[in-house]
Amino acid sequence: MNTLAFGPLGGQEMVILFILILLLFGAKKLPELARGIGKSMGEFKRAKEEFEHEITSAETETKKTPVAKPAQPAAKKSDSEDA
Q1: How many domains, the chain?
Q2: Locations of Low complexity compositional bias (predicted)?
């Protein structure tokens, strides 16, 4: 059973969080804080897409390359050929 500890955030909770953030950081710092969060989210998204691209390209490369067959052992010489 997978439940959240506090449940999903509703409208009232979001307003309370916004007011708390406004009180903690001030009105002047709020746009700067939001800009930093936005940049961080963009970098995270780019890194995630790059990682997914690397995984899919590695999967396609392994599917394209044929599996090498093991070499056949050399034929043994019989005793009559040595003489």
Answers
A1: 1
A2: 65-75
**Distances 6 to 10, 13, 20 between C-alpha atoms, Å:** 11, 11, 18
CA angle 69, 75, 76 (to 5 degrees): 140
In a domain, 5, yes or no: no
What are 50's two structure tokens? 């790059």
Domain hosting residue 40, numbered range: 31-64
DSSP 8-state secondary structure symbol assigned to residue 77: P
Classify residue 59: in a domain, yes or no: yes
In angstroms, the CA 38 to CA 18 distance is 16
Q: Is the pTM of this model over 0.85?
A: no
> Quick one: tokens of 75?
């034929």
How far apart are alpha carbons 41 and 47 in whole angstroms? 10
